[in-house]
Amino acid sequence: TVGKTVEWGLQKRNKVKGPGRNVKSMRVGSWNVGTMTGRGRELVETMARRKVEILCVQETKWKGNSSRHLGEGYKIVYSGKSTKMNGVGVIVCKDLADKIVRVVRHSYRSINVQVAFESGLWNIISVYAPQVGRPQEEKDSFLEDLEEVVSRIPGNEMVVIGGDFNAHLGEKCPDYPDEHGQRGLGRRKALETLEALELFAVNTGFTKNYEQKVTYRSGGHDTQIDYILVRRIDRAKVQDVKVLPYEAVTRQHRLLVMDITISKERRIKQIKHPARTKLWKLRENKEMSHILEEAATRVCGKTRGGRLRENEEWWWDMEVQETLKEKKKALKDGTGEFQKYKRLKKVGKRSVSRAKERAWKEWYEKLETKERTK
């Protein structure tokens, strides 16, 4: 039986990283299932056992555009052709089924399901690229449609693309360090699109063993043609990506999963104030206040006190005072007295200069007399 999911299916992987930080993560997968006919129940059981909350599926081979319930609350939204060929879809768990706010079916090769989280809108896009042998015009059209879909999504919304791209990104691509993690598998093709869309293939960015990289096995040939993409700026949110090779729903394609951070909630530390003496209560007890003041005086002593010094420049005189007084008055009178203010400002500067000159002259004269000894 399918295990009961908890709130949003996310609490099973809640982790605490660092002091006071609560990290919520979610598992998103991508899988070319070959056909959805007769496999709905198996996929639900696999998602529950592997704790996959969202699964992008390709080659559904269902006609038309619709949605269905697969059991245990799991729901699939799909887009197909008029014939039982190709088709893509997105399966969500029970607790996310009610969080779907919008579905955009671009074609039978691309579908965008918007899911509302507390941290914002997430665009889950499932794609299925033309197979090897299809006309080049069809492949170019697919890439152009994908570029248009991603470019229309606002920058503040999350983008997760899972799909069968029927293309190789290669083991190492030094020319594309921002799109390729240098830990891929196979030969390199079609990285120009990732560069144009500022996307990153997350399953090329983690060191894994060979079996956890192979997404497609047929006729003794192993390759990596299924990818999960996110925007470069969201690369740090990805915790882990790997292939789960031992699922028997399909023979050739393998389940690819990604653990990604949804939100980081920093706990507010409780600031405790130190205990304080209630000195303000001494105002009510004059006698106790007087006793404490006398004790403090005996221990610390008192200053000598004295006359307060006037805060005045040593060269200040009545001429400077009167000039600056008139200047301030002209400034307060408004724009009509602005010319007068400018004139008095110059006069004030000259008055200050003359006052300083007189003060220094008197000082030097005192140095030549007996007053210098005082």
TrEMBL record:
Q: Name one GO molecular function term.
A: catalytic activity
- Matching SUPFAM superfamilies, A to Z? DNase I-like (SSF56219)
- Indicate the segments annotated as coiled coil, or none if absent: none
- Supply the CDD domains for this chain: L1-EN
Record Gene3D superfamilies: Endonuclease/exonuclease/phosphatase
The lineage's top-level taxon is: Eukaryota
**Where do the Endonuclease/exonuclease/phosphatase domain residues begin and end?**
29-238
* Protein name listed in UniProt: Endonuclease/exonuclease/phosphatase domain-containing protein
Q: Which organism is it from?
A: Lepisosteus oculatus
